Amino acid sequence: MQSRCAALNCESGKFNKQPLFRFPKDEERCRKWVENCNRSDLMDKSPEQLFKYYRLCGKHFGKASFENNDTLVGLVLTCDAVPSIFDAPNPPQATQLKRSKETVEGDETENDVTKKGRKSQTETTADGTEAPSEEEEHKQFLTSLFEAVLLLAEQNVPAVKGPVDGETKSLASSNLLELLDYRVSAGDQILRRRCDADPESKEMKDKEFCSPGQLARLIDVCEQWTRSKILDQVKMSRLFSLVTGDVAKIADEWHLPVFLLYMDQTNFQQQRFAGFLNFEGDGDSLAERLLSEMTDQWGLDMDQCRGQAHAVSSSQSAKIKAFAAKLKERYPMAVLTPRSTHALNISLVGGAALSGVQLVMLAFKKIEAFFIHSPALQLELEHAISIFYPDKEEKANELKELCRTSWTTRPEAFDTALDLMESLLLCVDSVHDNEDLRWSDDVTQQALEISKALADFEFVMSLVVLKSTLVLTRAFGKNLQGSAAEAYSAASNFKPMLQSLTEVSENIDVYHEFWYDEAVNLASSLEIPVRVPRSSLKRCPSESGTTALQPQGYFKENLSVPVLNHIIKEMQELFGEDHLKSLSCLSLVPAVLAQNKTTEPKEESLQIHKADIPNMGTLPAELHCWWVKWSQKAKGEPTLSNVHETLRMADVKFFPNMFAVLRVIGTLPSLVLEDSCSLAYRRFHRYLENTPENLRSRSLALVNVNIDVGRDLGSMVEAYMKSYPGGEDI
Asked: How far apart are the C-alpha atoms of 430 and 376, rounded to whole Å?
């Protein structure tokens, strides 16, 4: 590909090469150039744009316009040169072409210095710079394509109207083509020359800048390059934890989002979205494939994984648990923990495959979606609260304040829901009736669905059981996600809390009777009939044709007992021996040491991380010095309250073993994250919320969420050309 002359109908680039000269920066002379070359579309462009992107060839200048007029090749224009020759040339005759060819062949006999000079003359522009070679121009073209793709990805604008796949035959009318068209209009000469490569095509829409196959390859390179930069940071930090989110649907398949949590070289906590893994399949084969993709394709060193945490939903809980078990089996140091970004109580019941529990969780999602984005509906709910709490203004104000937040995700969500039951039903029934025609049909339909869910005794009973059982874990969960001292206290109190759950389980007959009476009383006040689920009646008919199921017995066996057993099992899995030992290492945090001045941290509690401790021989002496330093600190000296503050303390470098253990603890997903770490979650969820399922891309999602990783277009182009060396896109 060669540079082209901007003059209208000039064919110099097709039949013979001419030196090209930049438009002048002088405004008055530049205006004369534009007027003379008969390009009205250039009138509104600035001299800087014209100088940067447009050229006129030497054939449009008289000999007097050159400093040396013996030849038009490789010379410099005078400071006041103005083009004046714009007659459309005839195609060169065959004799002229032959004579030109003979001249070139004769030049080959010249000495090396002469040949080098002539080559410089034929491949330089008026300002003395070399015109790009075909390979270099192809790189520039790829750079323009990468710029366009990255811009669309960062702004979450789909490149095409649907997934890019091999069946797509054209990118016509796509967002990518529109952006490239705009860049051409703005003066991108590389794209313009690509457009002009086909002289028979008149309009931009007919140009094939990029095929669907090439677009898929460009996006793949963007994904691989972005992930490689993230993994480079993880490798420098060495240790990390693996965190997964709720599965998302992309191209009609379920995909598992994966985040990496680590401490960077400056001892700041980082969390990055590393990409999606296809989550289709079951059992061990799925777990093996997920691990293989992370290690073999991504290049993640799972031997350095020190923790894992997963968001479990009931529909995918079996798969997630199989994957977590396989990961722990293969890499024993990857301890299973809950996620600090989710309230422990909500996480505990999220994976329970019980119809009543899932009825409550689904209703919570509908309620939040119904009210959170509508101030008018929130006001309607607040009005209903005032009706039911006329003499309890403080309680009413507390509930109103909660309703302005995402209360359905808080640890006390089930208690709040019971307090709001009457107000919620009154509100949604009023909206559904729509007597004053304030609400749209969509809103009234949503209100009806919520009303049906709430006015079901199974929902009421499930809500009471969840509230009554999870009250035992609420304080533990809040402490775990609090300060280092609170998390250390939670680890110390785990066994008593678990014993409380066991005692309730052993006396379930008594507890269930109280729970059932509470649910019946609430249902009676709301005029909700007390009965077992209709689906259960169909499964268990009696011989006489009437049901033999009694509500109290049914809900004990199918709700209270399974919920309690599920919570106990989940707590035991999430807080295994290795996890509790790791949490006990929080005793190294200065704020915890200050609270326990008389108790020196035990060396045995650090043994869990002996593989990461640089010098086990000096550990006892160093641990004692560390305790002395903080238990006898000077009055007024600030106390460091968490792991991250401690790691950034200047003196910590004199305690290499303490430093190593604290860095491991800093990667545990169960401990509260630094504020900066939530950024990846927010960007990820914003991408899912703002992108329809049919337009989602696992590759572009990675680029969009990691917009702050930085971009090196040159490296991306080199990676593309290395991966696809065939030159099929040139």
From this structure: 13
Mean pLDDT of 316-327: 90
Q: Which two three-digit tokens encode residue 103?
A: 């001249």
Write the pLDDT tens digit of every residue in 526-550.
Answer: 999 999 988 776 655 544 444 467 8
Is residue 240 within 8 A of residue 257, CB to CB? The reply is no
Residues 6+ away with beta carbon under 8 Å from 460: 421, 519, 522, 523, 526, 528
Residues 393, 264 within the same domain: no
Domain co-membership, 470 together with 531: yes
Rounded Cα–Cα distance for residues 155 and 147 (Å): 12
661 and 695 assigned to the same domain = no
DSSP state of 295: I
Within this chain, do residues 567 and 590 fall inside the same structural domain, yes or no? Answer: no
Task: Please check whether residue 706 is in contact with residue 298, taking contact to mean a CB–CB distance below 8 angstroms.
Answer: no
Give the three-state DSSP class for 273.
strand
DSSP element (H, E) containing 367? helix 355-371
Q: Check residue 58 and give its pLDDT.
A: 83
Q: Is residue 674 part of a domain?
A: no
Output the pLDDT for position 473.
95
The verdict on 505 and 526 lying in the same domain is: yes
Q: Which residues contact 531 (CB under 8 A, 6 or more apart)?
A: 457, 551
Q: How far is CA 408 from CA 415, 418, 445, 564, 630, in A?
A: 10, 12, 21, 21, 41
In a domain, 249, yes or no: yes
Q: Which amino acid is at 17?
A: K
Structure confidence by residue, pLDDT tens digits, 545-604: 444 678 999 999 999 999 999 999 999 999 999 999 999 999 999 989 888 877 888 888
7 within domain boundaries: no
Cα separations (Å) of 457 from 185, 464, 505? 65, 11, 23
Q: What percent of the chain has pLDDT over 70?
A: 84
The reply to whether 252 and 160 lie within a common domain is yes
Number of domains in the chain: 4
382: left (phi over 0), alpha (psi -120 to 50) or beta: alpha
Q: Clarify whether residues 534 and 485 are in a common domain.
A: yes
Where among 97, 122, 147 does a domain terminate?
A: 122
Distances (CA, A) of 537 to 359, 534, 550, 557, 691: 18, 5, 10, 15, 42
Q: What are the φ/ψ torsions at residue 19 (nearest 5 degrees)?
A: -65, 140
| Domain limit, last residue, from 552, 574, 596 | 574
Tokens of 720: 């593309």
In sequence order, what are the residues at sequence separation of 6 or more whose Cβ sits closer than 8 angstroms to the Cβ of residue 224?
A: 719
Q: Which segment of 172-176, 591-595, 617-621, 709-713 scores lowest on mean pLDDT?
A: 172-176
What is the chain's mean pLDDT, rounded? 83
Please report the DSSP string for 10-23 in residue order: --HHHHS---EEEP
Tell me: the pLDDT tens digits for 449-461? 999 999 999 999 9
* β-strands 253-263, 248-250 pairing: antiparallel
H-run or E-run covering 271? strand 269-278
Q: Which tens digit of pLDDT belongs to each residue from 452-488?
A: 999 999 999 999 999 999 999 999 999 998 899 999 9
| DSSP letter for each residue of 85-110 | --PPPPPPPHHHHHHHHHHHHHHTTS
- Please list, in sequence order, all residues whose beta carbon lies within 8 angstroms of the beta carbon of residue 436, skipping any fewer than 6 positions away: none
The reply to whether 296 falls in a domain is no
The C-alpha atoms of residue 601 and residue 623 are separated, in whole angstroms, by 8
Token pair for 594: 């200050």
Give the structural domain span for 27.
Answer: 12-122
- Count of beta carbons in the 10 Å neighbourhood of residue 176: 22
Same domain, yes or no: 115 and 140: no
510: phi > 0 → left, psi -120 to 50 → alpha, else beta; which?
alpha
What is the rounded average pLDDT of the residues 299-321? 88
CB atoms closer than 10 angstroms to residue 696? 19
pLDDT one-digit tens code per residue, 189-215? 777 777 665 444 444 444 556 778 888
